[in-house]
Amino acid sequence: MICTRCLRNPFGAPVRSRISASAINSVSGRPLRTPSTPRAFSILCTRRPRILASMSNTPSPSISSTLITPTLDLLPKISSHPSLAGIQVRNGPRDTFNPSHRVRKRRHGFLSRIKTRKGRNTLKRRLSKSRSKLSH
């Protein structure tokens, strides 16, 4: 069934019911008002933000040749997007990788696993699966 008030009405015109106008008049007590022309709906407020052409600043070629442009990252950070400036990004990329054997053992080693409850659970799980190496 198609809703008469819905903006997704594919026919453009209001859908008329199969019930006669006299039956509705007898129930409601007032005459049924039928529009002579179908109303055209327009959405004034869009749901998604748009970038207007007047807001986009593109420098002219003569000015851009004198400016020094910095090197751009291939994959910028998640939190660098302007819409995410005010919120906290929890699982974004981090630059904590250090290719050092000591750092790896400090973060994922046996002694660090024993210190915490989750680490002890990890060791128990790997021991129950009979892994040859429980940790680094």
UniProtKB/TrEMBL annotation:
Coiled coil: none annotated. Pfam families: Ribosomal_L34. This is Large ribosomal subunit protein bL34m. One of its GO terms (cellular component) is mitochondrial large ribosomal subunit. GO terms for molecular function: structural constituent of ribosome. It comes from the Eukaryota. GO terms for biological process: translation.
